[in-house]
Amino acid sequence: MDFAPYQDTAPETERALSPPPHRSSSRSPNPRSPPPNRPSTDPFATSALPPPSHFGNEAGGDIGNGGFGGGDVEGGRLNVNLFETSLPMRMDYEAMLAYLLLPPAGGVFLLLMEHKSDYVRFHAWQSSLLFAAIFVVHLIFSWSSILSWLIFAADLGLIGFLTLHAYRDADALDRLEVPFFGRLASSFVDNE
């Protein structure tokens, strides 16, 4: 068994081999030697394990740190990273932008641009659905300036609350779902 996988050659090729046992003229079996032609029952036998190159990247490149699991056997992808995004920025910042970039337009923008992160796509869906509905409520109550300002203040509070949770929960990939639109957004992301 190769206990030093970082070595270039297997330790068995560098070790000095033991001398062959002395054969006596009598044919008495050695009590310490196993019977001949018996298959090994050792589960840790090196012949049962594939070589380390079997698990490597066929392209010869470095697999890298894949985060939660180095590869996806079913999909054939080698570099699966739950925190990887399509845009060149951190996942928690992208999730925050779903709420900060003029909702619901920021969510729609991220839905069009982000294809790798389900966490960001969930927040983009939730932002788009929730703030599109709130926009309709704004249109309905536009006749009253007092109600419009109260709804606008609630908008800003909701944006701040959801932005903070999108940033904080990114490390554990937790999703804060608002009552109706959060479940709907989760179902959209899960069906993609």
Describe this structure in words.
The protein is mostly helical and 192 residues long. Helix content is 42%, strand content 0%. The chain is built from 6 helices and no strands. The chain has helices at 11-14, 91-100, 105-113, 118-140, 145-168, 181-191. The longest helix is centred in the C-terminal third of the chain and has 24 residues, at 145-168. It is rod-shaped. The two termini are 44 Å apart. 16% of the residues are buried. The model is unreliable at 58-78 (pLDDT under 50).
In a few lines, what is going on in this structure?
The protein is mostly helical and about 190 residues long. The protein is built from six helices and no strands.
Average pLDDT for all residues: 75
Which regions have little confidence, pLDDT < 50, spanning 5+ residues? 58-78
User: What level of helicity do the residues show?
Assistant: 40-55%
**Percent of residues in beta strands?**
under 5%
Which of globular, elongated, flat, extended, rod-shaped describes the shape?
A: rod-shaped
Our count of helices gives 6
- Tally of DSSP β-strands: 0
What structural keywords apply?
192 residues, mainly alpha, 6 helices, 42% helix, rod-shaped
Describe the SSE topology.
Blueprint: H1 11-14, H2 91-100, H3 105-113, H4 118-140, H5 145-168, H6 181-191
Helix pairs in contact: 2-3, 2-4, 2-5, 3-4, 4-5, 4-6
